[in-house]
Amino acid sequence: MRKIALEEHFTTPELAGSYVARPTQSDTLFADVERRLADFDELRLEMMDRTGIELMVLSVTTPGVQGVRDTKEAIRLARGANDFLAREVQKRPDRYAGFAHLALHDAEAAAAELERAVRELGFRGALINGQTNGHYLDEDRYLPFWERVEELNVPVYLHPGAMADQPAMFAHRPEIGGPIWAWTAETAAHALRLVFGGTLTRFPAVKIILGHMGETLPFLLWRLDSRREFDLGEKLAPDALPSAIIRRNIAVTTSGVCDPGALIATLQALGDDNVMFSVDYPYEDPQLACDFIESAPISEDVRAKVCHGNAERLLRL
């Protein structure tokens, strides 16, 4: 089965080290991750050929410039990362595509860089590594950015990044402070800000992508509707329910969740047009991810949509 993977990461010489999160305490494992993040020619292509991944949509690993404090430096680094990726994609356009890296420190600059990346570099959207210096994408300062996203008709992949602060619930429990749980909670909350803050109502054509089987949101749709109506003390119109907004505006990938039960539940919750295959390379085992999607108990028509059809349509590949 043809497979397209779209939460697959790289770094640049300028970003490596200072702006690459370390999600493991093992020096050996992290050294292998760093080696694979920097590779485009040998390790990555060998893995793709071995597992049957035909195309990877590449993005800067977290935090990238979302971890930079200075606006001018973040803009410079983001543009450099996009130029770097464009050169790699141009070498192998049949194997690689790109998501733009954006400095959301400045919404107008991010909008302009997204347009350059899409129109000049041929990128398929953007991937953003969470909040930027404590600012979330539902804030009014980002209206010019969302206007440009809707105009360009490209998706925005909302990827995990560091929390802006450290709630007491994570004190003395560092093991749950990263990808095991905190990044999921942070990214799900960021997406819900776009739902409840009105961003996705104001820009109904915008498409957000969430990884990791939707960061738990597909499993909470009924409760989101129930508690929203309870809080407001009124029944909402069907198209104003949180679940309706999520189904209309959010697609998800299987990255980092190789669980048939979760896949089936997500397909039932969001529909088979809104779920796409991904690995989360080099942080997850691509062979495991590919074996999982090939053997999942779903129909061949649905498998084709998840493996490649939905990505081809959404990213216009």
UniProtKB/TrEMBL annotation:
GO CC list: cytosol
Keyword 4Fe-4S: no
Domain Amidohydrolase-related: 48-317
Keywords carried by this UniProt record: Lyase
A GO BP annotation: secondary metabolic process
Any Pfam family: Amidohydro_2
Protein name as annotated: 2,3-dihydroxybenzoate decarboxylase
Lineage: Bacteria, Pseudomonadati, Pseudomonadota, Alphaproteobacteria, Hyphomicrobiales
